[in-house]
Amino acid sequence: MLIIKSIEDLKEVKEKYEPLIKQRLGHRNGLGLTQILVCSGTACHSSESREVRLELEQELARRGLEEQTRVVKTGCFGFCEYGPIVMVHPGEIFYCQVRPGDVRELVEKHLIGGQVLERLLYHNDSTGKRTQTIEDIHFFQAQRRIVLRNCGVINPEEIGEYIARDGYFALADVVLHKNREEVIEMIKKSGLRGRGGAGFPTGRKWELTAAQDIRPKYVVCNADEGDPGAFMDRSILEGDPHSVLEAMTVAGYCIGANQGFIYVRAEYPIAVERLELAIEQAREAGLLGKGLFGTDFDFDLSLRFGAGAFVCGEETALLHSVMGQRGEPRPRPPYPAQEGLWGKPTLINNVETFANITVVLREGWEWYQGQGTSTSKGSKVFSLAGKIYNTGLIEVPMGTTLRTIIFDIGGGIPGNRQFKAVQTGGPSGGCIPAKYLDLPIDYESLKETGSMMGSGGMIVMDEGDCMVDIARFYLEFSQDESCGRCTPCRVGTKRLLEILIRITEGQGEMEDLEMLEELSYDIRDASLCGLGQTAPNPVLSTLRYFRNEYVTHVRDKRCPAGVCKALLHYTVDEEKCIACGLCAKACAAQAITGAPKQPYRIDPEKCTRCAACVAKCPRQAIQKGIRKDVADLGGEAGIHAGAGDTENRATL
After folding, report:
1. Under a CB-based contact definition with an 8 Å cutoff, are residues 233 and 351 in contact?
2. What distances in angstroms separate CA 255 from CA 184, 200, 405, 546, 609, one per listed residue?
3. Which of 21, 406, 611, 638 is the most exposed place for a label (fewest CB within 10 A)?
4. Which residues does 127 contact at the CB level (< 8 Å), separation at least 6?
């Protein structure tokens, strides 16, 4: 790789790699080369995309096609539900769910025979049609890929391909032609807000850190993505690591720092591998290290690994972990911009925030300010998961409605079931009901509904989900991840969880609902850090919008969604039972007995309510109902069972 000391050097590298990139973007440039892009993000990797890529390389070599055909690993396309994904250029043919066993036929028919392999194209269940190109797939049409502009396009392990997409040109322009105040002012005017959850103005944070007249200073990238169901930052690091490196270097120039750290989860092996390679390549090219672009500006980066503690996503806990200390939050002020790593001023932004920086500098703050809403600029990356057809990674302009994301991009709810709620913001967020489907997504609107943007996790729920159980699940996570430093979080979340468990087990009382609210507000207002302050959000939001489900659990001892196991009872409908014995074979608890030509029976004392028998029964003969011992406590008797009735509580 050429040692890059000027913008002219960058242009030389760009000219070398640009024809390859243009072909992948649909340009007819007469390369005479076929390029096969294979998604190598975590989701596709777990579905054997690596094996597909290796099989492609071997098959091409066997047929002598390796000279005119190039196999390229890329980052995540976002269409995770249909991986592994293989895209062939020219033609932009988009193949889904490709397996190693499909490779020979793909090479024979498409590369040699010139025919599209129809069975591997995306199949639209609603229209019954198969779609050849990525532009014709509805999942991508409502998106606006700004942060994810390079994911699925470039090889993240080749710095030249990043440069071909104008990579490192913004850094060169900043270092050679701009002063730090000018750059910070551009970031401020753009309206970019932190994508880590709170939405603090990014330019303001840079300005506060730059104003500290103390040396040394540090730049830190928070890549500790711990929300259940969230994989936005991971995908950016896997598919476009240099965008983060370049932005961190720009930040170092602006605040007067010479060293940066990326705090990344050790559970992200592909992201870690590509970050290490990207840092090595940037150093070799002279884009990290001493005297960048022939100036006196020095900047270097190194990685720090997190061990999976959710609390280390909080910036002060993260800083302690970077320094090798226990990951515990501390009171603020002083803020990290004033006293961070080793007591020195430290700038912390998350992965997605940094990935927006070069876009602002390249396109201009005026352009960026024109994207999104009046208070939330740009786009937002979400990981879409749960009860939805098209799970995956999406990027939409701020202000896009939940309806567009869930029913247009996401394809709606499988099985003709009804949408019930969407949970945003991870364990720190809340559950938003159907009446807010037309809500435009931005920081303020989500906060008004009792949720939050968070890092971008979005989990869709249908009528089969119990909202009391959902609140219990998220609170169990937060309680388990509490560092234990402050009493409101350490003890308060445990008490909240105990109440929720009682309710889901049919032992709740009406007074518990008042206690849930009161205790939630106390924890929110008194906890030391963001983990404790937001841990009650799932409880408060479900109480606000689905209070009737709580009342039904407490008063009627019934779970409307049929989820809470302690409130369920399975029986066999003797008229439907054909005595096939499949249910008994599926029962690990040996709770089902029967004889030839005789209906089978379920022993309620042994039954663990795992529902394995329901899944195996070919005649739907197994009925799910309310437990008799719990149902007997319904109505007024159920409301008062507990405090003055220890015998009944013990029975339950």
Report:
1. yes
2. 9, 17, 37, 47, 58
3. 611
4. none
d(CA 547, CA 189): 43
Quick one: pLDDT at residue 298?
A: 97
Long-range contacts formed by 518-527: CB under 8 A, 24+ apart? 519/492, 519/495, 520/496, 522/488, 522/492, 523/488, 523/489, 523/492, 523/493, 523/496, 526/486, 526/488, 526/492, 527/486, 527/488, 527/489, 527/492
Note whether 634 and 585 are within 8 A (CB). no
Residues in the chain with pLDDT < 50? Answer: 631, 633-652
Tell me whether residue 383 is exposed, middle or buried, using C-beta atoms within 10 angstroms of its C-beta: 0 to 12, 13 to 18, 19 or more.
buried
**């937060």: which residue's tokens?**
478
Note the pLDDT of residue 649.
Answer: 26
Other residues' Cβ atoms within 10 Å of the Cβ of residue 574: 12
Separation CA 202–CA 431 (nearest Å): 27
CA distance 15 to 1: 14
Note the pLDDT tens digit of each residue in 61-112.
999 998 999 999 999 999 999 989 999 999 899 999 999 999 999 999 999 9
What DSSP state is assigned to residue 136?
G
How many H helices and E strands in the chain?
29, 19
The sheet with strand 419-424 has its strands ordered as: 392-397, 379-386, 457-462, 419-424, 430-433
Count CA atoms within 13 Å of residue 459 on its CB side: 23
Give the residues across from 431 on adjacent strands: 423
What is the per-residue DSSP string for 461-505?
Answer: EETT--HHHHHHHHHHHHHHH--S-SHHHHTHHHHHHHHHHHHHT
DSSP 4: P
Buried b (16+ CB within 10 A) or exposed e, 541-564: bbbebbeebbebbbbbbbbbbebb
224: left (phi over 0), alpha (psi -120 to 50) or beta: beta
Give the number of other Cβ atoms within 10 Å of residue 159's Cβ. 27
pLDDT for 32 equals 84
Provide the token pair at 453: 């943007």
- Side-chain half-sphere exposure of 212, counting CA atoms within 13 A: 24
| Contact criterion met (CB below 8 Å) for 552 and 558 | yes
Q: Look up residue 559 and give its amino acid.
A: C
Taking the C-alpha atoms of residue 513 and residue 503, their distance in angstroms, rounded to an integer, is 9
Count of CB atoms situated within 10 Å of the CB of 611: 15
* R_g of the chain computed on alpha carbons: 28
Per-residue pLDDT at 626: 65
Question: Residue 601 corresponds to which tokens in the numbers above?
Answer: 């029976």
Q: What is the 3-state secondary structure (H, E, C) of 561-596?
A: CCCCHHHEEEEECCCCCCCCCHHHHHCCCCCEECCC
Cα 290 from Cα 486, distance rounded (Å): 43
